[in-house]
Known about the structure:
Number of strands: 7
Structural class: alpha/beta
Radius of gyration: 18 Å
CATH architecture: 3-Layer(aba) Sandwich
Order of helices and strands: HHEEHEHHEHHEHEHHE
Distance between the termini: 51 Å
CATH superfamily: Thiamin diphosphate (ThDP)-binding fold, Pyr/PP domains
Strand order of the largest sheet: 2-1-3-4-6-5-7
Largest sheet: 7 strands, mixed
CATH topology: Rossmann fold
CATH class: Alpha Beta
Strand content: 15-25%
Amino acid sequence: MSSSTANMTKVFGRPSSMTDVPFTYCPGCSHGVIARIIGQTLDELEIAEQTIAIAPVGCSVFCYLWYKCDAIQVAHGRACAAATGIKRARPDRIVFSYQGDGDFASIGTAESIHAANRGENLTVIFINNQIYGMTGGEMAPTTLVDQKTTTTPDGRDPNLFGYPIRFSEMIAQLDAPVYVTRQAVYDTRRIISTTAAIKKAFQNQVDGKGYSLVEVLATCPTNWRMTPLQANQHVTNTVTDVFPLGDLVDRG
């Protein structure tokens, strides 16, 4: 080993709160970036040992393999209900759910809204890739008008299926949530912004402030039938027109 190699300082690596188990996410999707941000946040706040992750059915169903913290799997859509029960039974724990749009905004609509309306002291990470990613690429509540999915092969027709639901805007109308924001990870600047938002959402829970929701616009190149580059450009140029980025509520 040369002296220059021996003197090298490591400046970037896997968060210590994450295992070395490979992700099961499709190559090029946004989940890996977001999952890493969560691990980095657990490290920085030094809360991994007291954290409990809630993973419903969906692309994140195996998150118990990736974090060095307690985790449970719950039925599709029930993450916020399970998180509420755990947090109330163990208020000393940091509880977060990691949910897709089909899970959080469709199957779990009631659980999601009422947990927010009660102001449960939870952190919810809501991944919006406008589609059911794991179960076959079906239309989600967030699917864009004219977007083709396995259940809308001719494109989403609003006369038949309604319009995309801006779920974070719905949550933002409630009195109890302390923090509601929509972020993205399609470039470095947005990754930095999302990292700050997720850290803030966890810090709110540590400080006992109440319910925080971080929606993240994500890609699904496999079901969108796009390359990762095309998918990121699609989010940048099209998806953000329907789902504008930024903070919707900040009562922290």
